[in-house]
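Exercise 7b. Backbone tokens:
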């Protein structure tokens, strides 16, 4: 996976600044496009790029409106986000 840098974007879930994106299906850096999915590397929320590369969370209504291909991609990305979230929890050292 190659990473493409872009102007900082704010995660609508946790307000963290995100300034890079990666493409799972390419060895070349690819800039995101409206409709593409991403995962916030801070809170592991699955997000979608909109017009002007504005990020938004994905509602149940959005999921219902997805075609089969979009839904399959969303579900795949969601599994990655869940795995990343579990990995972050497991990797945290115990607080004493």
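Sequence design result:
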């Amino acid at each position: 996976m190659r990473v493409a840098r872009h102007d900082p974007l704010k995660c609508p879930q946790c307000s963290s600044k995100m300034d890079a994106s990666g493409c799972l299906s390419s060895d070349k850096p690819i800039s995101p496009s409206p409709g593409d999915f991403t995962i916030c590397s801070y809170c592991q929320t699955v997000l979608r790029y909109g017009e002007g590369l504005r990020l938004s969370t994905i509602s149940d209504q959005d999921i219902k409106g997805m075609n089969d291909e979009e839904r399959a991609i969303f579900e795949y990305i969601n599994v990655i986000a869940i795995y990343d979230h579990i990995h972050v929890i497991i990797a945290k050292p115990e607080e004493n």
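Instructor comment: Helices lie at 60-64, 68-91. The CA atoms of residues 82 and 93 lie 19 Å apart.
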